[in-house]
Amino acid sequence: GSQILVVEAQSLPAKGPFWSLPVLGGPPRRLGDLVGQDAIWSPDDKWLAYSNGGDLFIAKADGTDPHKIATKAGGSIQRLTWSPDGTHLRFTDEDFSVSISSLWEVAADGSDMHPLLPGWHNAPHECCGRWTADGKFFVFQASGQIWALPQSGSLFHRPAKPIQLTFSPMGLSDPVPSKDGKKLFVVGATTRGELVRFDSKSGQFVPFLGGISAEYVSLSHDGQSLAYVSFPEGTLWRSKSDGSERQQLTYSSQYVLLPRWSPDDKEILFESPTRKPSRIYAVSSQGGSTRELMPNDLHSQGDPNWSPDGKKIVFAGDAADAASAIQIIDLATEQVSTLPGSQGMFSPRWSPDGRRIAAMSSDSRRLMLFDVQTQKWTEIVTGTFGWPNWSKDGTWLFAVSREANGDFVVKIRMRDHKTERVTDIKNFALTGYYGYSLALAPDDSPLLLKDAGTYDVYSLDWQSQ
Question: Of these four, 50, 172, 285, 357, which has the most CB atoms within 10 Å of its CB?
Answer without folding.
Answer: 50
